[in-house]
Amino acid sequence: MYRIFLLIVAIGLPHSASAEPMRLPQGCVPGAGPEQRQRCDDVVSQQLNSSSQSTPLDGGWRLVKTRDPNGGANIVAVMRTADTSRSDLNLAGLSLRCSGNGTEVVLTLLEQQPRASHPMVTLTVGSDRVQLEASVNQSAESLVLPQAATALAAGPWLTAPELTVEIATTPVPTRGTIPLTGLANGMRALRSSCALR
After folding, report:
1. Which residues contact 83 (CB under 8 A, 6 or more apart)?
2. pTM (2 decimals)?
3. Bridge partners of residue 104, in order along the sequence
4. Measured between alpha carbons, how far is 157 from 151 in angstroms, rounded to an integer?
5. Residue 49: how many CB atoms within 10 A of its CB?
6. pLDDT of 134-190, one tens digit each?
7. Does residue 190 contact residue 103 with C-beta atoms inside 8 Å?
8. Dihedral, 75, 79, 84, 86 alpha carbons, nearest 10
9. Beta 162-167 vs 174-179: how paired, if at all?
10. 144: burial class by Cβ within 10 Å (0-12, 13-18, 19+)?
11. Do residues 94 and 62 touch, judged by C-beta distance below 8 A?
């Protein structure tokens, strides 16, 4: 639930600079006991239900529509959490969201990054590997990838089973795997929703 919460929070922040970002309730940290995790999940669910609409899609993807707190167009994205058994805790997941230029690819992290940094991100699908320079968004927890990543998401990623990610974060790199099964349906849902927002 924490990773889903952070992905949903991250998709809305670049469009609402003056809005206060939502945060995890106190005590909602990795390693919390079962009772504390349940309380955190309940609080997070209440927060999400008040500002976002989330629709499950094939393959663990979610279509998320979040109201812009400044009254602008809804923020719409499809997102997928990282495979927790094969990923560093820092990697929350992958989002593809509507933007003024079409679709934007975003990686969400649990730890904030220096806002002025431009970490290198290595993306691997099968034997194809590409290295791109990312920009840190205003929340400092999301990395916006360049348009080359959008072309990959709309092409080779649609039929690939998974995406392996390595981010040159400091002090240690962040690595992980994001399942891509169901992305083709997610992209169709995103395109339809972007047109309606």
Report:
1. 162, 176, 177, 178, 179
2. 0.77
3. 97
4. 9
5. 10
6. 999 887 889 999 999 999 999 999 999 999 999 999 889 999 999 999 999 999 999
7. yes
8. -130
9. antiparallel
10. middle
11. no
